[in-house]
């Protein structure tokens, strides 16, 4: 990578705008469009079926609207008010878990990843192996022992039971580590140290801006991971008041299969739609930031 | 680090401890040493689960990564109309919770009334995505759908950090696009490819959410020992065989670690 | 019993955390389970009040709790839906294992009750005078809450079986309501021939349905005597079942659709699934989940294995039981009795539940209820009759939850490959026996 950077001055006389002036290709666009269709068809299905009533779901074609009946708004209304508006409560819980859990996870991963990448200490490779090992241990295996431990500490059935485990993301940690190693050149840190800047000052003034794209990426990943968290809350939480939205939706889906239960597939589908909308919105917002962060990151010398 | 120890190391230690015991409904708890490990290594259900995820690994992971790479290169090439739209729409499935994604595909996979039925009627075929010999591919499809965008993002962001000057000069020298890709772009993002591979490998070995949520629809095709994780979880939750499940989990973790390590070595060797 | 010291030990070793908690659950039911509790004690507890945690997914309990709290204002009932069926049992097992967060009362299905009873997780109700309530309940559910001569729960609902059929479809193709399973097979052939899209029923292998039909056929695959267990799927009842069902599978006469899936409800509402053989609790599900079939469906007596017979069986149904680790058991018993034997029953029946109590089952108002979904038919008469005719002597395994969980690994093969149903059942028997042996039972 460093040799690559050094070649740049030699190519400085090449017009910078070349990339932007590339010929567009219909063929390539068509090819990628196929992928986009593949990605979007299930979304379209979700959107379309969120407009149907429970009965309409069973009687109309899956990828088109139910004739005459457009129940999206009544579905949204029902979803939000069903069982005394518990859906809103679940949404709030999920947001809480994301803000505290994913936010905290990002901070921890950034600090730990940066620290490990930029400071030498004995046993570094050992720590690395443990981290990779931690990623490899199946979550299902840890869930029950973690449950038993938390239970002893009276943490189960509280939000902490979900938040504490999601604070640690070996994946984010790993990404921050590799990213710090590459994005923050040691020379700059050396220079800052020579100039007499303290470690904290160096971190906030120099490293943090350079790390921004990495941080946003980790934030994105841990947000999605927390938002989608299913198995852990399933074990930890028994009180529906603390359910995140995924667990709640699955409970609604399972409800059809009980004596006297009511199938509410239309609410499950509408609820699913409402679940992913904020995430998509968040992604679009973050992406803008992420793009500019990326631009900043690419001017790295 | 303290949190890390609390959330990971302690449960791991406890899992190892559990794996050395046996607890019976009748007869209680007793220390059995490595008996559970011997049992697991002779357990045909465990091996079939391991075989299944290995098959999944060697088929689904390369396909998914290759597709993700193609898309990433295409978007990076700057030769697309509506590049931003494609990047966002292909990434979107990643934002869909696995629970929701599987429910959705499950609805669509229905060959009696679902979307697949409509397609079958139209093409005159009798495909059943939930049949025992096909269901693994169907799960592969769900996983691919969920994660193409994610891997694309990793690769694309790596591509974006490759200085444009590098291949612009090569372009001026008359190198073909293919040549630029293989000679310049791919080597430059080797690290990102390695990361994506490692996490996909780990993901395949831990395959759990999709089969377990799809199970009510295809309970004969997706057995309780369909993947090692599903096996461990059914042992724990239906059979209360915490100890044996812990053993299976530990063996799986070891296998995963070894493979992840090998990929890591290969990826970093010639960098 | 599971020991908990090790958890604390591990936590202490690795973290220096976790206050010692090893001594709090040293032995089994040392509390009130052996002593006697009189009705007066229970009433006193109800008057005094307190907090009660109930884990149940039964929807009608919500109204019961409201009324209960009106009657006993000092009692605060915390009704928690901790998951349906297996999910809740998992949660329950976890809580029992951890020794914390165990509810006072839990809903447990009949097939799972022996497992919890054997694991000493439940309080014996003998000391509460529950034996005297025997006459209040129909025989099927009562024998289901009795394990080894001891009562462990009070029946909440029951599922005497009936055959639900789509009359519109039957009339269209001139099909008679089958009286025997052989006629059922003929009806299946006739229907599928007339309309290749329509099936007599759906089945992808269901442990509950299979065991219930074997039960109806007089089979007794499980016998349980303490920790001595026999499993035998080669008896007369099982053979009769496989004979007919194998034909249905081989000739592809049953829709390969799993019950409770969206496709299933579609089939019920749309007329492509013509019958469902299941418990008497089903009408509420029909009404709420497949409204499209309203008016078209009817209930009938379950087809017979022997012409002219009247045999029936239970499918599903659940009880409430007091957890051994729960607190305030008198209060718990008071609530259970209210919900399952007292005023609560009528509240639940009014909301669509099917009772297990003889009082309600013989109540003219109950019997005369007209079901709109069944075109005004008085279906409860059929169900009540079915409840009287449940074959006696059936028992489930003390590890039925696990056994059912591997049903589709073994018997399921018969639905998707050339394995026969009989071979599938045999494999199921072997795997269940293997598990039983591993768990320390003597399995024959």
From TrEMBL, chain A:
<feature type="transmembrane region" description="Helical">
    <location>
        <begin position="210"/>
        <end position="232"/>
    </location>
</feature>
<feature type="transmembrane region" description="Helical">
    <location>
        <begin position="95"/>
        <end position="114"/>
    </location>
</feature>
<protein>
    <submittedName>
        <fullName>ABC transporter permease</fullName>
    </submittedName>
</protein>
<keyword id="KW-0812">Transmembrane</keyword>
<feature type="transmembrane region" description="Helical">
    <location>
        <begin position="26"/>
        <end position="48"/>
    </location>
</feature>
<keyword id="KW-0813">Transport</keyword>
<dbReference type="Pfam" id="PF00528">
    <property type="entry name" value="BPD_transp_1"/>
</dbReference>
<feature type="transmembrane region" description="Helical">
    <location>
        <begin position="126"/>
        <end position="148"/>
    </location>
</feature>
<dbReference type="GO" id="GO:0055085">
    <property type="term" value="P:transmembrane transport"/>
</dbReference>
<feature type="transmembrane region" description="Helical">
    <location>
        <begin position="263"/>
        <end position="286"/>
    </location>
</feature>
<feature type="domain" description="ABC transmembrane type-1">
    <location>
        <begin position="91"/>
        <end position="286"/>
    </location>
</feature>
<dbReference type="GO" id="GO:0005886">
    <property type="term" value="C:plasma membrane"/>
</dbReference>
<keyword id="KW-1133">Transmembrane helix</keyword>
<dbReference type="InterPro" id="IPR000515">
    <property type="entry name" value="MetI-like"/>
</dbReference>
<dbReference type="InterPro" id="IPR035906">
    <property type="entry name" value="MetI-like_sf"/>
</dbReference>
UniProtKB/TrEMBL annotation, chain B:
<keyword id="KW-1133">Transmembrane helix</keyword>
<comment type="similarity">
    <text>Belongs to the binding-protein-dependent transport system permease family.</text>
</comment>
<keyword id="KW-1003">Cell membrane</keyword>
<keyword id="KW-0472">Membrane</keyword>
<dbReference type="InterPro" id="IPR035906">
    <property type="entry name" value="MetI-like_sf"/>
</dbReference>
<dbReference type="GO" id="GO:0055085">
    <property type="term" value="P:transmembrane transport"/>
</dbReference>
<dbReference type="GO" id="GO:0005886">
    <property type="term" value="C:plasma membrane"/>
</dbReference>
<keyword id="KW-0813">Transport</keyword>
<protein>
    <submittedName>
        <fullName>ABC transporter permease</fullName>
    </submittedName>
</protein>
<dbReference type="InterPro" id="IPR000515">
    <property type="entry name" value="MetI-like"/>
</dbReference>
<feature type="transmembrane region" description="Helical">
    <location>
        <begin position="242"/>
        <end position="263"/>
    </location>
</feature>
<keyword id="KW-0812">Transmembrane</keyword>
<feature type="domain" description="ABC transmembrane type-1">
    <location>
        <begin position="50"/>
        <end position="263"/>
    </location>
</feature>
<feature type="transmembrane region" description="Helical">
    <location>
        <begin position="188"/>
        <end position="208"/>
    </location>
</feature>
<feature type="transmembrane region" description="Helical">
    <location>
        <begin position="84"/>
        <end position="108"/>
    </location>
</feature>
TrEMBL record, chain C:
<dbReference type="GO" id="GO:0055085">
    <property type="term" value="P:transmembrane transport"/>
</dbReference>
<dbReference type="InterPro" id="IPR050490">
    <property type="entry name" value="Bact_solute-bd_prot1"/>
</dbReference>
<dbReference type="InterPro" id="IPR006061">
    <property type="entry name" value="SBP_1_CS"/>
</dbReference>
<comment type="similarity">
    <text>Belongs to the bacterial solute-binding protein 1 family.</text>
</comment>
<keyword id="KW-0732">Signal</keyword>
<keyword id="KW-0813">Transport</keyword>
<dbReference type="Pfam" id="PF01547">
    <property type="entry name" value="SBP_bac_1"/>
</dbReference>
<feature type="signal peptide">
    <location>
        <begin position="1"/>
        <end position="19"/>
    </location>
</feature>
<protein>
    <submittedName>
        <fullName>Sugar ABC transporter substrate-binding protein</fullName>
    </submittedName>
</protein>
<dbReference type="InterPro" id="IPR006059">
    <property type="entry name" value="SBP"/>
</dbReference>
């Amino acid at each position: 990578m460093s040799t690559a950077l050094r070649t740049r001055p030699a190519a400085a006389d090449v017009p910078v705008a070349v990339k932007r002036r590339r010929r567009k290709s219909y063929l390539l666009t068509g090819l990628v469009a196929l992928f986009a269709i593949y990605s979007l068809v299930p979304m379209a299905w979700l959107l379309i079926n969120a407009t149907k009533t429970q009965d309409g779901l069973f009687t109309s074609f899956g990828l088109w609207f139910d004739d005459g009946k457009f129940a999206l708004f009544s579905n949204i209304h029902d979803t939000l008010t069903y069982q005394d508006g518990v859906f809103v409560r679940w949404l709030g819980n999920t947001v809480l878990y994301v803000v505290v859990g994913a936010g905290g996870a990002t901070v921890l991963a950034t600090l730990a990843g940066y620290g490990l990448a930029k400071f030498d200490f004995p046993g570094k490779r050992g720590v690395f192996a443990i981290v990779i090992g931690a990623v490899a241990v199946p979550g299902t295996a840890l869930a029950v022992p973690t449950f038993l431990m938390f239970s002893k500490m009276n943490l189960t059935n509280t939000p902490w039971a979900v938040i504490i485990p999601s604070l640690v993301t070996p994946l984010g940690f790993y990404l921050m580590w590799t990213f710090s190693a590459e994005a923050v050149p040691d020379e700059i840190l050396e220079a800052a140290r020579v100039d007499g800047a303290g470690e904290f000052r160096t971190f906030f003034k120099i490293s943090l801006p350079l790390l921004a794209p990495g941080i946003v990426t980790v934030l994105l990943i841990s947000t999605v991971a927390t938002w989608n968290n299913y198995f852990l809350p399933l074990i930890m939480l028994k009180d529906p008041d603390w359910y995140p939205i995924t667990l709640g939706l699955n409970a609604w889906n399972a409800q059809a299969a009980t004596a006297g239960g009511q199938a509410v597939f239309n609410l499950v589908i509408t609820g699913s739609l409402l679940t992913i909308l904020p995430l998509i919105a968040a992604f679009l917002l973050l992406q803008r930031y992420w793009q500019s962060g990326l631009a900043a990151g690419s001017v790295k010398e | 680090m303290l949190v890390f120890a609390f959330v990971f190391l302690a449960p791991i230690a406890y899992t190892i401890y559990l794996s050395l015991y046996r607890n019976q409904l009748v007869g209680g708890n007793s220390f059995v040493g490595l008996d559970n490990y011997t049992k697991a290594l002779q357990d045909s259900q465990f091996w079939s689960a391991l075989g299944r995820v290995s098959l999944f690994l060697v088929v689904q992971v390369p396909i998914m990564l290759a597709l993700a790479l193609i898309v990433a290169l295409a978007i990076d090439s700057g030769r697309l109309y509506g590049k931003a739209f494609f990047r966002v729409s292909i990434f979107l499935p990643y934002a869909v919770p696995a629970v929701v994604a599987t429910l959705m595909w499950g609805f669509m996979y229905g060959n009696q009334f679902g979307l697949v039925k409509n397609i079958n009627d139209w093409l005159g075929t009798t495909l059943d995505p939930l049949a025992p010999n096909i269901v693994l591919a169907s799960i592969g499809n769900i996983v691919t759908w969920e994660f193409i965008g994610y891997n694309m993002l990793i690769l694309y962001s790596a591509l974006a950090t490759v200085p444009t000057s590098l291949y612009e000069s090569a372009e001026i020298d008359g190198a073909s696009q293919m040549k630029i890709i293989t000679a310049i772009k791919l080597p430059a993002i080797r690290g990102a490819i390695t990361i994506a591979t490692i996490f996909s490998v780990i993901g395949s070995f831990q395959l759990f959410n999709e089969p377990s949520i799809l199970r009510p629809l295809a309970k004969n095709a997706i057995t309780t020992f369909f993947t090692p994780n599903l096996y461990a979880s059914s042992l724990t939750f239906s059979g209360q065989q915490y100890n044996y499940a812990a053993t299976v989990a530990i063996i799986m973790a070891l296998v995963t670690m070894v493979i992840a390590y090998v990929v890591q070595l290969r990826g970093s060797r010639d960098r | 019993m599971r020991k908990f010291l090790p958890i604390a030990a591990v936590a202490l070793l690795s973290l220096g955390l976790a206050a010692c908690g090893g001594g709090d659950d040293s032995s089994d039911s040392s509390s009130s389970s052996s002593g006697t509790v009189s009705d007066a004690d229970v009433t006193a507890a109800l008057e005094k009040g307190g907090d009660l945690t109930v884990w149940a997914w039964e929807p009608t309990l919500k109204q019961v709790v409201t009324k209960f709290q009106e009657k006993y204002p000092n009692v605060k009932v915390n009704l928690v839906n901790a998951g349906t069926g297996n999910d809740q049992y998992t949660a329950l097992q976890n809580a029992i294992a951890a020794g914390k967060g165990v509810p006072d009362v839990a809903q447990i299905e009949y097939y799972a009750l022996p497992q919890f009873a054997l694991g000493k997780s439940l309080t014996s109700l003998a000391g509460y005078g529950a034996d005297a309530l025997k006459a209040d309940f129909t025989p099927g559910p009562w024998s289901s809450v009795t394990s080894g001569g001891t009562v462990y729960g009070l029946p909440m609902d029951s599922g005497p079986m009936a055959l639900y059929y789509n009359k519109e479809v039957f009339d269209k193709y001139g099909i008679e309501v089958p009286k025997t399973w052989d006629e059922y097979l003929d009806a299946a052939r006739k229907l599928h021939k007339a309309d290749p899209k329509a099936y007599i029923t759906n089945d992808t292998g269901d442990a509950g349905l299979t065991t219930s039909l074997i039960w109806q056929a007089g089979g007794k695959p499980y016998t349980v005597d303490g920790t001595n267990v026999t499993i035998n799927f080669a008896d007369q009842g099982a053979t009769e079942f496989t004979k007919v069902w194998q034909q249905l599978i081989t000739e592809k006469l049953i829709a390969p659709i799993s019950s409770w899936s969206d496709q299933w409800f579609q089939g019920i509402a749309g007329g492509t699934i013509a019958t469902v053989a299941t418990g008497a609790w089903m009408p509420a599900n029909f009404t709420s989940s497949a409204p499209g079939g309203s008016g078209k469906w009817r209930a009938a007596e379950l087809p017979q294995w022997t012409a002219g017979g009247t045999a029936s069986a239970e499918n599903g149904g659940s009880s409430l039981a007091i957890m051994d680790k729960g607190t305030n058991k008198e209060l718990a018993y008071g609530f259970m009795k209210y919900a399952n034997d007292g005023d609560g029953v009528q509240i639940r029946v009014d909301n669509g539940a099917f009772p297990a109590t003889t009082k309600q089952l013989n109540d003219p108002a109950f019997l005369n209820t007209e079901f709109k979904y069944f075109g005004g038919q008085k279906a409860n008469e059929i169900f009540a009759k079915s409840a009287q005719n449940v074959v006696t002597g059936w028992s489930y395994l003390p590890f039925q939850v696990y056994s059912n969980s591997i049903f589709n690994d073994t018997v399921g093969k018969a639905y998707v490959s050339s394995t026969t149903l009989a071979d599938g059942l045999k494999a199921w028997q072997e795997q269940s026996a293997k598990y039983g042996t591993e768990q320390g039972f003597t399995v024959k």
